[in-house]
From TrEMBL:
Cellular compartments per GO CC: cytosol; multivesicular body
GO biological processes: endosome to plasma membrane protein transport; multivesicular body organization; protein transport to vacuole involved in ubiquitin-dependent protein catabolic process via the multivesicular body sorting pathway; vacuole organization
UniProt name for this protein: BRO1 domain-containing protein
PANTHER family: PCD6 INTERACTING PROTEIN-RELATED, TYROSINE-PROTEIN PHOSPHATASE NON-RECEPTOR TYPE 23
Segments for region (Disordered): 672-834
Top-level taxon of origin: Eukaryota
Source taxonomy: Eukaryota, Viridiplantae, Streptophyta, Embryophyta, Tracheophyta
Compositionally biased intervals (Pro residues): 733-756, 812-827
UniProt xrefs under Gene3D superfamilies: alix/aip1 like domains
Length: 834
């Protein structure tokens, strides 16, 4: 039995690294700033000054790369610059067109043939070059780790996988755009970056193979991992052998990749032969060893010169190991096993085990969280966001309707089955309908009725009349008056408990589904709230429809959960329907329903009567408050009127006394010339300044054409009274025989009363059951009051509960005056409408 040896250990030290592309200097600051000023504003350009300076510094650092720079810092610089370019792409149109930024030209040299270069007036070449350099930096990082240690091999493998991820991202997203046009380089083509991706995966898998050998894994495992290394190298070699790459790379590249592919295929044959030897499958072992030797021989003949010496040494070592094991296997087969050696064409492909994969770099390059130039939002991005928002709203609306319909269906179906009320009634926990339970706080009805009873005798009588009806509201809690569902008196199989338990369990499951629907609806709203794809729209370089399909797919899982919830509810409702029918057959549900409905109607009638009485009480209180205000105002007006008349009376007495004191009998000869004014003629004595001062604080009103307050007796001759002429003034005393025409009186307290016997109208405060005690001229325009107290106190009563007792005609003398009402005319609305 042969022992495994590290046949290819020297070959593991030989790997390839990629060098960065070179560029020429370009000024990004000035063209971008000018574009912001022209299309937005100078203020916006000033606000974005820091971003412009940061971008300028990124480009300068890219141009000044040197071998002394740290690879990790270089990697971070390239990532940051690429994100910045992604943010720029959607905001700054860079192209030769007139209305675009047409003064920028990016120049980059080929990484494998430095004499070749490309120059383009778009951002795609810049992005492709930055990605290429990032992949190159990752390859250099992988080559720089010490693979003699376990951690070094792991770190190297991860770096090569990241390099493969960068090249794959470049191939899938940028390479096609960068290669459009006449000026381009082959190193950023789809074919080249695809080849580099396979090469980096081959070297990552090779690191895993090295670690497997170092751990002393079985020959079977080592064979599978080695075979996958060879497959990756074979894929890279296939791309190198065809146009356009066949003439682009140096011979050393071709030789290295070809020898590596053959070497690891032969290594897999060698390791697999060891496994076959242990199983004593000598015939296939011989065939596998010969296949490995043939691969090495063909690779040596066809590969160009220029391979590294370490690779050739590993080749020689592996070839010797294969020959030695083959010679041993042939001898043993000839002497012991005598097995038939199958032809190479009949052998199955060697099993392979892929331990590495292309590292996804989408999150690394995601510029949706990039703050640079975030305030600039093009119209195209805003419109695309609006489209996506409509799509999300449609999903949310549809799913919300499904959830609401499910809940409504549950409510209706349970209502039809009278659930869970029937179960609660059986357990003595009857519930009042929500509409009744929320009417006016039932538990406080008794206290409110007691307070209302003290307000009015008639209402108190109504309360007494309906107390038996409303006594049902005194029960605490109100649900205690509801009937309960009793168990059957006789039971044949005594399975009512099982039926009840199954139905209650199903209802609990239904409640759980309802709670899940509520949670799903909240989850939908939360997803909608957090779903902001504007940053991704700003950095998207592909089709918006593709982005929308990807983003809207986030809602697929919750939509499926909603569908499952509704479907489960349908099945559960069918089960509950069957259980409810069985429950109704065992328990006397129909009699219980009739008794319950009767109780509901009693409670409803009691609530209606209570609300009626309460409304009438409230209206009565409003009536009394309004009447109290009106009486208070009337009292004040009467007091003012009496005081004013008293002052005027004293003044008239003083005037008469002054006139009598000044009588002269010597002028009797002139008394015959004195003429009394006719009825209605103004003859009012002039008042002295002292008299005016004395009554200055008293409200006085002039009524030049109003009726006289009193009618004085007619005198035949007044020769003993000195004549005083008062043209156009109204006398205090006028003959009773004549009466001036009635005129509308101005509001106030100084107006004269109408003569007795004139036509009257109802006062603002009148009582309907008796003749009004106060009258006023019919054609006198008076302000009204807010309420007429002679009509029903408030709507709803079939009688004037609040009308004062009627006054018999003639029981009260008419007053010598009328007082204008203090309130404006009554409006047509309110509780006291005529």
């Amino acid at each position: 039995m042969a022992t495994p040896s590290s046949s290819s250990s020297p070959a593991t030290q030989i790997m390839l690294a990629i060098y960065e592309k070179k560029t020429t200097a370009v000024d990004l600051y000035r063209p971008l700033r000018n574009y912001i000023v022209y299309n937005y504003s100078e203020r916006e350009a000033q606000n974005l000054e820091d971003d412009l300076q940061t971008l300028k510094q990124y480009r300068t650092d890219i141009e000044r790369s040197s071998p002394s720079d740290s690879l990790s810092s270089r990697r971070d610089l390239l990532i940051n610059y690429f994100r910045a370019l992604t943010a720029i792409e959607s905001r700054f149109p860079i192209s030769p067109e007139t209305d675009h930024i047409n003064t920028l030209t990016f120049v980059w040299h080929d990484a494998f043939k430095n004499k070749l270069k490309a120059s383009q007036q778009n951002i795609h070449l810049e992005k492709a070059a930055v990605l290429f350099n990032l992949g190159a930096v990752h390859s250099q990082l992988g080559l720089g780790f010490d693979r003699g240690e376990v951690e070094g091999r792991k770190n190297a493998s991860h770096s090569f996988m990241k390099a493969a991820g960068v090249f794959a991202f470049l191939r899938d997203n940028v390479a096609m755009k960068a290669c459009m046009g006449n000026s381009t380089t082959l190193d950023v083509s789809v074919e080249c970056v695809g080849m580099l991706e396979r090469l980096m995966l081959a070297q990552a898998q090779e690191c895993v193979f090295e670690n497997t050998i170092a751990k002393g894994s079985s020959a079977s495992v080592c064979s599978k991992i080695s075979r996958q290394v060879g497959i990756f190298y074979e894929e890279a070699l296939a791309a190198l052998k065809v146009a356009p790459l066949s003439q682009h790379f140096e011979k050393a590249w071709h030789s290295h990749v070809q020898l590596k592919a053959a070497l690891f295929y032969a290594e897999a044959c060698y390791r697999y032969g060891l496994e076959l030897h242990e199983k004593e499958e000598i015939g296939e072992e011989i065939a596998r060893l010969k296949s490995g030797l043939n691969a090495l021989s063909e690779a040596r003949k066809s590969s160009p010169k220029g391979a590294a010496q370490q690779l050739i040494d590993a080749y020689t070592i592996l070839e010797g190991n294969l020959n030695r094991n083959l010679e041993r296997a042939v001898k043993e087969n000839d002497r012991v096993y005598l097995m038939r050696v199958p032809p190479a064409s009949s052998l199955q492909p060697l099993p392979a085990f892929q331990m590495v994969k292309t590292m996804p770099m989408t999150e690394v390059f995601d510029a949706s969280k990039e703050k640079m130039f975030a305030s600039l939002v093009p119209d195209s991005s805003a419109k695309a966001l609006s489209r996506y928002t409509e799509m999300v709203d449609d999903v949310i609306r549809t799913q919300a309707e499904i959830l609401q319909q499910g809940s409504e269906l549950t409510r209706v179906r349970l209502k039809e089955m009278d659930l869970p009320e029937s179960i609660l009634a059986l357990e003595g926990h009857s519930a009042l309908p929500t509409a009744l339970k929320e009417d006016d706080r039932l538990n406080r009805f008794a206290a409110n009725l007691k307070q209302a009873a003290e307000s009015d005798t008639r209402i108190e009588r109504s309360v007494r009349e309906h107390s038996s009806l409303m006594s049902i509201l005194d029960r605490h809690p109100i649900e205690s008056v509801l009937p309960t569902l009793g168990r059957p008196i006789m039971s044949l199989d005594a399975n009512e408990d099982a039926i009840l338990g199954a139905l209650k369990q199903s209802l609990r499951q239904l409640e759980t589904l309802g709670a899940q629907r509520a949670g799903l609806e909240d989850m939908l709203k939360e997803m909608k709230r957090k779903d902001d794809i504007l940053p991704k729209l700003m950095t998207s370089t592909g089709s918006y429809d593709d982005l929308f399909r990807k983003e809207i797919s986030k809602y697929d899982q919750i939509c499926q959960e909603i569908g499952k919830n509704v479907e489960a509810q349908e099945h559960l409702l069918l089960q509950i329907q069957a259980q409810s029918n069985e429950f109704a057959a065992v328990f006397n549900i129909e009699d219980y329903k009739a008794s319950r409905e009767k109780c509901f109607k009693q409670i409803e009638a009691a609530i209606a009567k209570y609300q009626e009485i309460k409304e009438n009480i409230n209206e009565g209180l409003k009536f009394y408050v309004t009447l109290q205000d009106a009486i208070t105002n009337m009292k004040q007006q009467c007091s003012d009127f009496v005081m004013t008349r008293s002052i005027q009376c004293r003044e008239m007495i003083e005037e008469v006394q002054r006139q009598m004191a000044g009588l002269s009998f010597q002028d009797s000869k002139n008394t015959g010339n004195y003429n009394y004014p006719a009825v209605g003629q103004a003859n009012q004595p002039q008042r002295t300044s002292s008299q005016q001062t004395k009554a200055g604080n008293i409200p006085q009103q002039s009524h030049p054409q109003s009726q006289p307050y009193y009618s004085a007796p007619q005198q035949p001759n007044t020769s003993n009274i000195p004549q005083q002429s008062h043209p156009q003034s109204q006398p205090y005393y006028s003959p009773p025989q004549q009466q001036p025409p009635q005129q509308p009186n101005a509001p106030g307290y100084g107006q004269p009363p109408p003569p007795y016997g004139s036509q009257q109208q109802q006062p603002p405060y009148h009582l309907p059951a008796a003749r009004p005690p106060y009258t006023s001229p019919q054609n006198q325009q008076q302000p009204g009051v807010p309420h007429e107290y002679g009509q029903p106190a408030y709507p709803g009563w079939q009688g004037p509960y609040y009308n004062a007792p009627g006054q018999q005609p003639g029981s009260m003398p008419r007053p010598p005056y009328t007082v204008p009402a203090p309130y404006p005319p009554p409006n047509q609305g309110g509780y006291y409408r005529q």
